[in-house]
Amino acid sequence: MFETPFSIVGTIVTDPIHRRVGDQEMVRFRVASNSRRRTAEGTWEPGNSLFVTVNCWGKVVAGVSAALVKGDPVVVFGHVYTSEYDDRDGNRRSSVEVRATSVGPDLARCVARIDRFKQQEDQDQRSADQDAAGQGDSAGTPDAEAVGSEEGLTLSA
């Protein structure tokens, strides 16, 4: 199956829904990307909007669940595909969906602070383990596991 890389900058317009599908967790939400254009008089008018359903799986779930809510400005990267279905009236419809590989705040429209609480806890535990084993102090040298640990994210617009 051919997967088309896709990125979208927009605003979360639905509350993220966290659920379990089989033995995996997923988060789903919708993003609206709105355009504006300048008129001949120099004023701005709203243009078209693109609404996309974003599906998050794997490691992306934890970050999205912990940090993002309806109304947050986001940047989403992933693979785009269409989903076809029949509506209540029996009409055939299609929707644009993205399987997200990365989701983050749009720092052009908000300020984010990353809390590295998990990384510090991991380093403290390793230091305690090494001290107990008599290996001395190496808390100042984080390893690859600590650098890639989960992080908390605080947004403000």
Automatic annotation (TrEMBL):
UniProt feature, compositional bias: Low complexity: 130-140
Region feature Disordered, mapped onto this chain: 118-157
Biased composition (Basic and acidic residues): 118-129
GO biological process: DNA replication
Record InterPro entries: NA-bd_OB-fold, Primosome_PriB/ssb, ssDNA-bd
UniProt-recorded Gene Ontology molecular function terms: single-stranded DNA binding
SUPFAM superfamilies in the cross-refs: Nucleic acid-binding proteins
Listed Pfam families: SSB
Superkingdom to which the source organism belongs: Bacteria
NCBIfam families in the record: PRK05853.1
UniProt lineage: Bacteria, Bacillati, Actinomycetota, Actinomycetes, Mycobacteriales
Protein name: Single-stranded DNA-binding protein
Keywords: DNA-binding
Organism: Mycolicibacterium pulveris
